[in-house]
Amino acid sequence: MTDYTTVSIPKDLADRVEDTIEGTSFSSTSDLVRFLLRSIVIQHQRSGNLSEAEFEEIARQLQDLGYLHD
């Protein structure tokens, strides 16, 4: 059995995520967050370390998708 923990995000971000995932295979904000975090962790594990440039690229992609703001 998998244990879970709670991660808090601002309500306005959660609302935007809900709008964004509408019509996708993600059924909830939690599904999307798990996917994104898993992707980042896998990338980190494959490369040994995330360089600053790789982290900035991930942040840029998330920003382009509307998940992060300046």
UniProtKB/TrEMBL annotation:
Give the source species. Halocatena pleomorpha
Query: SUPFAM superfamilies annotated for this entry?
Result: Ribbon-helix-helix (SSF47598)
Family annotation (CDD domains): RHH_NikR_HicB-like
Any one Gene Ontology biological process term? regulation of DNA-templated transcription
Q: What is this protein called?
A: CopG family transcriptional regulator
